[in-house]
Write a structure and sequence with these properties.
The chain is α+β, with helices and mostly antiparallel strands. It is 49% helix and 14% strand. It is built from 14 helices and 6 strands. Strands 3-4-5-2-1-6 form a 6-stranded mixed beta sheet, sandwiched between helices. A hairpin with a 2-residue loop joins strand 4 (75-82) and strand 5 (85-93). The longest helix has 22 residues, at 174-195. The relative contact order is 0.09.
Length: 292
């Protein structure tokens, strides 16, 4: 945080700067010796490339590692180290940021990484322009019911491995099976994020325990069960996944009855049977028979 304040003191010299925040592990108290420093600087107008370069040098930043973004769209990001700490700084206009907020809060985009940014606004520490940041926090805290429903509907989607486990367990499909399990875990968390009104993005999803601990609506012992799901024997994986999906669908039906769970219930209650070769097939003539 001391480093963040030093960096902020440089950028605030630009008259177009209206707010500066710290996000991520530094703001949330999770920083370790591998953590980077995540900051956002909000402008009425983005600085020129020369101004960005001058600010980097004044922060004592070493050579820039990368510069990304679209100046025309109003947002850029750069990364450079200061005394060994990677500093990732987003430079964005207020207009562009508020447009991004609307993408989630009004358009209910459930797949955009901007949900991660909305989550970051809720936990950020303002270093400059606190009244403006508090306005954004208030908007983010008002999680729309429409967004919650869109989240649940989008993530209520599973490959029903429990209905045909032999397709994976007996056919050298271990890699495919684990891909399905990982996708299923992301979807389970996405459903529960919607039920609990939590912003959620698959992009660089980490600190799962802290995220799940914020959920008041969730299957019991969720974190441990999700972790065991990827390390158990295949038959146990299949059974546990079905149980978790079933319990999560129960929660959807209880807390968000407007969501149609008919198809999911059908998948939970079926098991694909091995097809049997009929006796008459074995008595038919071979395909090379000239009479066919």
């Amino acid at each position: 945080m001391a480093l963040a304040r030093q960096v902020a003191a440089i950028y605030v010299r630009n008259a177009n700067v209206q707010a500066i925040i710290v996000m991520g592990s530094a703001a949330e108290g999770h920083a370790d010796f591998y953590s980077d420093l995540d900051m956002s600087v909000y402008y009425t107008e983005l600085p020129s490339d020369a101004e960005l370069e001058a600010a980097r040098q004044q922060t004592r930043g070493a050579q820039r590692d990368w510069l990304l973004g679209d100046r025309e769209a109003g947002a850029m990001a750069e990364s450079y180290p200061i005394d060994g700490v990677e500093c990732q700084i987003v430079h964005v206009t207020i207009a562009a940021w508020e447009r991004d907020m609307a993408t989630v809060l009004e358009q209910c985009d459930v797949t955009t990484p901007l949900q991660k940014a909305l989550s970051g606004i809720l936990t950020c520490i303002p270093l400059y322009g606190e009244p403006l940041v508090q306005e954004w926090k208030a908007k983010a805290e008002d999680y729309p019911a429409k967004l919650a429903q869109a989240m649940v509907a989008h993530y209520l989607n599973f490959v029903p491995v429990w209905s045909k486990p032999e397709r994976f367990l007996d056919r050298d499909g271990a890699l495919w099976m684990h891909q399905i399990l990982v996708d299923a875990e992301y979807n389970l968390i996405g459903i529960l994020a919607g039920l609990n009104r939590l912003y959620y993005s698959l992009f660089q999803f980490k600190r799962m325990d802290a995220f799940l601990n914020r959920m008041e609506i969730a299957p019991p012992d969720l974190s441990n069960r999700l972790k065991r799901l990827l390390t158990s024997t295949p038959p146990v994986m299949v059974a546990e996944l079905k149980a978790l999906v079933n319990e999560t669908v129960d929660l959807v039906e209880c807390h968000m009855p407007s969501i149609d769970t008919t198809q999911m219930r059908r998948q939970l209650g079926t098991r694909q049977q091995e097809w049997k070769r009929k006796a008459q097939w074995r008595q038919e003539k071979p395909l090379c028979d000239s009479n066919l």
